Amino acid sequence: MAENAAHISTIPQAKPTIFEVVAQESLLATLKPSLRILCEAVVGTNPERYRKFLAFYDELYLLFDCFLQHHYLKTSQASFSEAFYGLKRISNKGDGPGLSTRERYLSLALLVGFPYLRHKLQELTNNIQTKTYATHLTAVTRCLQYFVKGVKTLNLSFECLKLYYYLRYLSGHYSSHSPLLALAGVQLVYQKHDPSKITWKDLFNFVRGRNQNITLHSFPIFVNLLMKSLEMIAFFIQFLKWWHTDELRTKLNIYPIPKPPTVCKAPLDKCPLCLKQRKIEVALQTSGYVFCYNCIKHWLESNKRCPITNTPSSVHDLIRLYPTEDEC
Q1: Where is pLDDT greater, at 210 or 152?
Q2: What's the CA gap between 328 and 322, in Å, rounded?
Q3: How far apart are CA 98 and CA 75, in angstroms?
Q4: Which of 4, 14, 279, 284 is the most buried (most CB within 10 A)?
Q5: How many other C-beta atoms can be found within 10 angstroms of the C-beta atom of residue 163?
Q6: What is the band of 57 on the pLDDT scale with cuts at 50, 70, 90?
Q7: Which of 115-124, 146-155, 245-254, 319-328 shows the lowest per-residue confidence on average (mean pLDDT)?
Q8: Over 156-204, what HEC string results?
Q9: If you write DSSP's letter for every residue of 27-68 in order, what string do you get?
């Protein structure tokens, strides 16, 4: 009898840990700048032709993100990053196994529209702050300053609210770790294994002609291939981000803290090496000092360091300086 009643158990589904929910949010935040780098590389091949796409990158990414999140919300009941970590969304009301139409579209709006509007507001405030205004304050200037302060206050309030939700989620008082999830009326749980779900092995077998259970009529094969590829690309992006951060931290730690540079006592219009009027002036870009070309060239070939600051340098770090019209 217990075996027959196992499917109606009222044990709630396990909640994911705070590390998993933060990791999926980090993955979602990494996707947009990573795709922008790819777009910049494409634009670099033909700037005149593809520059306009980079100018409207935010809007193009908005459309792409809307399609991506809608597909995952419809098929996996989760966002792209949540499905990647094996999570899904369920209603806080517990009125069904899946999301209602209202909850799905509200989740889509908060996943796609809210970050877009927040990014645009941040860009607008940055543009306002970088503008140069007159010394005297006008009514328009005061309004713009109040607007910038209001946006900053809203951002700070939202970040504090996120932290509050994190703490309440850790303590077990809240079922949702984010105010956006609470606003959509959903929470995150682990996805159950679905034997009917298409896996990478099934896709490879289909391509090789060994899996007859998958057909183009019963399953959108190309869409799933695309989504699976995006998941692998997202994992590769996360790995590169971790690798670069770890490598950069290692590189910074292996070098000792350099000593402050020595102040050169030579006259500013003389070469610090020969103490004579400079001939064929060149600047050493590792230190900024100006020498005679012959003096510094022979010095670097022998010592491989700046004679003033002792900074590692080479002949390739020399920059030729040309006299201005007043000096000629």
Answers
A1: 152
A2: 10
A3: 10
A4: 284
A5: 10
A6: confident
A7: 245-254
A8: HHHHHHHHHHHHHHHCCCCCCCCHHHHHHCEEEEECCCCCCCCCHHHHH
A9: HHHHHHHHHHHHHHHHHHH-HHHHHHHHHTHHHHHHHHHHHH
Lowest mean pLDDT among 74-78, 158-162, 166-170, 252-256: 252-256
Structure token pair of residue 61: 């990414």
State the amino acid at position 139 in one-letter form: A
Burial class (CB in 10 A: 0-12, 13-18, 19+), 253: exposed
**Pair 93, 175 in one domain:** yes
**pTM for the complete prediction?**
0.58
The pLDDT of residue 198 is 53
| One domain for residues 60 and 187 | yes
- 46 and 186 fall within a common domain: yes
pLDDT in tens, 202-219: 555 655 655 555 444 444
Domain end marker among 192, 221, 243: 192
DSSP 212: T
Residues 153 and 66 placed together within one structural domain of the fold: yes
